[in-house]
Amino acid sequence: MADEPLVLGIETSCDETGVGIVRGHTLLADAVASSVDEHARFGGVVPEVASRAHLEAMVPTIQRALKDAGVAASDLDGIAVTAGPGLAGALLVGVSAAKAYAYALGKPLYGVNHLASHICVDQLEHGPLPEPTMALLVSGGHSSLLLSEDITSDVRPLGATIDDAAGEAFDKIARVLNLGFPGGPVIDRYAKEGDPSAIAFPRGLTGPRDPAYDFSFSGLKTSVARWIEAKRAAGEDVPVRDVSASFQEAVVDVLTRKAVRACKDEGVDHLMIGGGVAANSRLRALAQERCEKAGIRLRVPRPKLCTDNGAMVAALGAEMVARNRSASAWDLSADSSLPVTETHVPGHTHDHDHVHEVAKDNLYS
Ligand code: KG4
Ligand code: ZN
User: Fold this and answer.
1) Over the range 319-336, which residues count as b (16 or more CB within 10 Å of their CB) and which as e?
2) Domains in the chain, ordered, with CATH?
3) Is 127 exposed, middle or buried (0-12, 13-18, 19+ CB in 10 A)?
4) pLDDT tens digits, residue range 7-58?
5) How far apart are CA 140 and CA 306, in angstroms?
6) Around Cβ 31, how many Cβ atoms within 10 Å?
7) Given the CA of residue 279, which atom of ligand 1 is nearest to it?
8) 154-160 and 143-150 beta bridge pairing
9) Has 20 been labeled as part of a binding site?
């Protein structure tokens, strides 16, 4: 439908420079330039390296997305950008680029929340999100259970990790096993050939008096690391496949158990899973199994849309336009700790329309 908003989204919260273009719920382009290889030798993302890589990749990635989508920048109805949460310097590159393009083109600017974007992206795959939506968001920086009545304005946290994020635990265990960075995909691969019940690792915060929707992976991480150290100290080989499978099972068991419980408690009959860890094959399979048993419909985007990308930002931006949410002001700033409840950032000044007129005059006179 031609009257659906055409929006370009820019994502630079971590190590992926993502530029996506959507028309309403339709994905037109999803260009990603990753600096992950530059961080691998450090075993984690180095913020300064990420910021520089974003700067270098930004313009070419925007040009590639426009070319892939077959649209002209002047046709866009808006430009959306991740305003937070994320690495401050990395976010700043995306926000600055989005402002420059929006200002030069005379288009509205939408600074949006990275976490809400991870949820909204599923509209590109499975159509409009049901309202309310229960979402399990699991990435390198976050693990949360979120209930959203309206993804553009109302996201309520039910629970979150009290220590490590799920993806962080995957990355740290992969490091202990010398499997490289990022750890999720490689542990996922090894686990396929291992026995998930070989080693009984602890399930954090699952006792009767523990908070129902919060997560903890720090105890699990220590337990796995100690188990590996003990093997090495005894001069024995570490069974990488069994350790991977048993560790992964402990993580996804807790994630799916708590998510299904939240759906039941809140009377929500479907579950959305997003964020980089949602690419995990065992998480997808176990969630499917448990949701089916509980009569809950599961929605998980394809793996490429689960990890950081620009299409998710464009998807949320398009929803902002469709629902007439106010655009961000030109003094929009990156907020590295933007709370999940702030789905978008209106900014401080309210002369948006005026500035647009000025921008247009400057461009076209
Ligand atoms: O959402 P994302 O791309 O970036 C953040 O916002 O953090 O998530 C990255 C995280 C990393 O920790 C990575 O190890 C994890 O997602 N990840 C996975 C898989 N693919 C990526 N974790 C488990 N299994 C996977 N297949
Ligand atoms: Zn993310």
Assistant:
1) bbbbeebebbbbebbbbb
2) 6-121+309-358 (3.30.420.40), 131-301 (3.30.420.40)
3) exposed
4) 999 999 998 999 999 999 999 999 999 888 888 888 788 898 899 999 999 9
5) 12
6) 23
7) 26
8) antiparallel
9) no
- Convert the pLDDT of each residue in 173-227 to its tens digit: 999 999 998 999 999 999 999 999 999 999 999 999 999 999 999 999 999 999 9
Q: What are the tokens at 13?
A: 């919260």
Q: Which ligand is nearest to the CA of 113?
A: 2
Q: Are 238 and 246 in contact (CB under 8 A)?
A: no
Closest-CA residue to 38 (of 15, 19, 58):
15
Q: What sign has the CA pseudo-torsion 261, 262, 265, 268?
A: negative
The Cα 101–Cα 109 span in angstroms is 9
Q: Which amino acid is at 331?
A: D
Whole-structure pTM value? 0.92
Which residues contact ligand 1 via a Cβ below 6 A? 14, 139-141, 167, 170-171, 182-185, 188, 275-277, 279-280, 307-308
Query: Are the CB atoms for 202 and 220 separated by under 8 Å?
Result: yes
Which amino acid belongs to residue 169?
A
**d(C-alpha 297, C-alpha 271), whole Å:** 6
